[in-house]
Amino acid sequence: MIPLKDTFWQSESWQQQMSGMIRDPIQLLHRLDLNPIDHPFSSDAIQQFPLRVTEAFVAKMAKGDWNDPLLLQVMPLHAESNEHLGYVNDPLEESLANPVPGLIHKYHGRVLLITSPACAIHCRYCFRRNFPYDANNPSQRDWKNAIDYISERPDISEVILSGGDPLSAPDEYLQKLLTQIAAIPHVTTLRLHTRLPLVLPARVTPALIDVLKNNRLRIVIVIHCNHANEIDEHTTTALAALHSAGFTLLNQSVLLKGINDNVDTLVVLSLRLFEVNVMPYYLHLLDKVRGAAHFEIDEEQAKFLMNGILSRLPGYLVPRLVIEEPGATSKRPLALS
Ligand SMILES: *Cc1c(COP(=O)(O)O)cnc(C)c1O
Ligand code: SF4
């Protein structure tokens, strides 16, 4: 008999790990051997957008390092309370493209469903940190409206499950939703935008893979990884399972000051993603959401970094640098010169 390894990855279900998320900054800093006296967190920031991070993600942070690139993504700082010109609650004006609850339709041929309001991490730069999830937390009846909306529009061929994190919903819920989507003949592709393979790799169970596989849709999974340190052995295992199930795996990152704003970090990230069967897709300029200005990298600096990556990597490992603007018909690629 092969003894089960006595680690919490195996001994706790993903639901337990999710409800056991760290929400207390003192507890987080204690795990990392950091003293809150040295670098106070902001209670105001936590009031605005609560602290949330899984043990699995904290396990990838370096101890004793205030500048750890993973810690910086979740640490509530006083800087979040400063007002900056142009930083607003709904930078993408999604509320204008929200024809039925839970559905956002901005681009030709694809719609986005706010599948679940919950995330297993709260990224401080999140552009939906002020999103009215309560008004968009779809009941069964609301899904019917969203499904009708898609059914009535034959040009919609792709449905994107987003959130929150769609994989924070239980299998049965996803199964029901997928069955309804797969019953719409003109939908060919189902895409998931998820961070869980990085923050809660235990979510990728054989049962989940069955739910995703047992329908006629092509499955694309876009993970959200900003730094190579987010990919440890557990994440590698989860991604390998998704890859062998035949799903297309892509990554999107956000360019973040102090976290991944240098050429070496971005090159290592692309190479690491490729090792785990994930192709770089987008590198986003920060969305100007209130509270996130301290993460900003401007267009000039971003282009300079992109030129650096281009000179180091094969073309297929270079993500597209994009910016999202309200009212545009796609994300806008930034021209390099
Ligand atoms: C980003 C986004 C998409 C997907 O865009 P792609 O360029 O196809 O990746 C779709 N709908 C909305 C509302 C989005 O923000
Ligand atoms: S996982 Fe995505 S949706 Fe959730 S907080 Fe982070 S950036 Fe926002």
UniProtKB/TrEMBL annotation:
CDD domains: Radical_SAM. SUPFAM superfamilies: Radical SAM enzymes. Keywords: 4Fe-4S, Iron, Iron-sulfur, Isomerase, Metal-binding, Pyridoxal phosphate, S-adenosyl-L-methionine. Its cofactor is [4Fe-4S] cluster; pyridoxal 5'-phosphate. The modification N6-(pyridoxal phosphate)lysine is found at K331. It catalyses: L-lysine = D-beta-lysine. InterPro entries: Aldolase_TIM, EpmB, Lys_aminomutase/Glu_NH3_mut, rSAM, rSAM_sf. [4Fe-4S] cluster binds at C119, C123, C126. Residues 105-320 form the Radical SAM core domain. One of its GO terms (molecular function) is metal ion binding. It holds the Pfam family Radical_SAM. Belongs to the radical SAM superfamily. KamA family. This is L-lysine 2,3-aminomutase. It comes from Zhongshania aliphaticivorans. The gene is epmB.
